[in-house]
Design a protein that fits this description.
Blueprint: E1 4-8, H1 13-30, E2 35-38, H2 42-50, E3 63-66, E4 68-70, H3 80-88, H4 108-122, E5 133-137, E6 161-164, E7 174-177, H5 179-184, E8 187-191, H6 198-205, H7 209-214, E9 221-225
Parallel strand pairs: 1-9, 2-3, 2-5, 5-8, 8-9
Antiparallel strand pairs: 4-7, 6-7
Helix pairs in contact: 1-2
């Protein structure tokens, strides 16, 4: 499928959250077992607030992985999986067994290898995982997942998951999906909220070379939701 970019602007977080929840409803109806990649940060609060209110949402058959994850215990507030688990599992919206997680007890290189193995099992038969939907955030510096502008990980093409031990944003140790995996997803949504993202979004829309390099050219559908 050729790449197409759609930019959607919402005047409030409530309307943004509703739009994301409806996107997930639609994707669930179109996919026989949704393969979903989520991000952390402000997206956790946004999705965990909206999804329980979405009556038409059917999460049965979902498998949820993470676009990146910090190498911290699941009990740590910095753990992306930990935050989704604490907010969604007790409500019965999704079960722990539906998540694909890192092993935070391993060294970062081994954690990346272990997560790679788990994703290959989830996407058996595919050399490159092809997610139905990835929901990614955008940092004020233009980073997405744990792929930062100017960082060597942007050039990695021989791995589906890469370790990072020098993240410009703490905590320093993380694992992240690489650009080839993001590029291969059927649909990718970037969510940017707040005034701090205005400069990076302006640069993206104006085709700034450094900023464009930080964002993948996805083969499927691409949306920026602001």
């Amino acid at each position: 499928m050729s790449s197409s970019c759609q930019i959607c602007v919402f005047p409030s977080l409530a309307e943004l959250g509703f739009s994301l929840s409806q996107l997930l409803v639609n994707e669930s109806q179109c996919s026989d077992g949704l393969r979903l990649g989520l991000s952390g940060g402000s997206l956790v609060q946004l999705l965990c607030r909206e999804l329980p209110k979405t009556a038409a949402l059917n999460t049965e058959g979902w498998r949820v992985a993470f676009c990146d994850e910090r190498l911290v215990p699941f009990s740590d507030p910095e753990s992306t999986y930990g935050e989704y688990k604490r907010n969604l599992v007790p409500l019965g919206l999704i079960s722990e067994s539906q998540f694909v997680t890192i092993d935070p007890t391993l060294p970062v290189e081994k954690a990346a290898e272990d997560y790679t193995k788990k994703l290959k099992e989830l996407f058996s038969g595919n050399d490159l995982p092809k997610f139905d939907l990835l929901i990614l955030g955008i940092g004020p510096d233009g980073h997405t997942a744990s792929l930062f502008p100017g960082h060597p990980l942007l050039e990695v093409t021989d791995k589906i998951v890469a370790p990072i031990s020098d993240s410009p944003k703490p905590p320093p140790e993380r694992v992240t999906l690489t650009l080839p995996v993001i590029n291969a997803a059927k649909t990718v949504v970037f969510v940017a909220t707040g005034e701090s993202k205005a400069t990076i979004l302006k640069g993206l829309s104006n085709g700034h070379a450094m900023i464009r390099h930080a964002f993948p050219k996805c083969r499927g559908g691409l949306s920026n939701i602001i």
